[in-house]
């Protein structure tokens, strides 16, 4: 392989490393801001009457951005909201 091809290969490798880093960083930032922040805040505004509402599903993307304590609190809160929604659903039947 001549010198020019080696340099070209190295530049290409650095570019791919940079792009993969940028994509990982963008995904992590999205999880922090959207999934863990805005979306969970929106879902906490009220408890839905339908126990199968999407806000009562576990958000694994948000859980990736949480610490262990936050994850435990999130699961406890989600369980509580599911139980309340279930009781409301039973009451309407």
Describe what you observe in this structure.
The structure is a single chain. This protein is an all-alpha fold and 93 residues long. The protein starts with a helix and ends with a helix. The longest helix is centred in the first third of the chain and has 41 residues, at 3-43. It has helices at residues 3-43, 60-64, 68-92. Helices cover 76% and strands 0% of the residues.
End-to-end Cα distance, whole Å, is: 75 Å
* Global outline: rod-shaped
Number of strands: 0
Alpha carbon gyration radius: 22 Å
**Percent of residues in helical segments?**
over 70%
Order of SSEs = HHH
Question: Tell me about the biggest sheet?
Answer: none
Number of separate domains: 1
Strand content: under 5%
Structural class computed from helices and strand pairing: mainly alpha
Q: Would you tell me the overall average pLDDT?
A: 83
Number of helices: 3
Uncertain stretches of 5 or more adjacent residues: none
Structure in a nutshell:
The chain has 93 residues and is mainly α.
Essential attributes:
rod-shaped, mainly alpha, 93 residues
Helix and strand arrangement:
Blueprint: H1 3-43, H2 60-64, H3 68-92
């Amino acid at each position: 392989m001549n010198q020019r091809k080696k340099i070209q290969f190295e530049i290409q490798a650095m570019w791919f490393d940079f792009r993969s880093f940028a994509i990982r960083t963008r995904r992590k930032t999205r999880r922090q801001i959207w999934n863990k922040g805005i979306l969970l805040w929106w879902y906490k505004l009220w408890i839905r009457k339908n126990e199968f509402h999407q806000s009562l599903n576990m958000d694994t993307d948000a859980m990736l951005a949480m610490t262990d304590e936050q994850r435990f609190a999130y699961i406890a809160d989600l369980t509580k909201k599911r139980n309340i929604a279930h009781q409301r659903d039973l009451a309407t039947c």
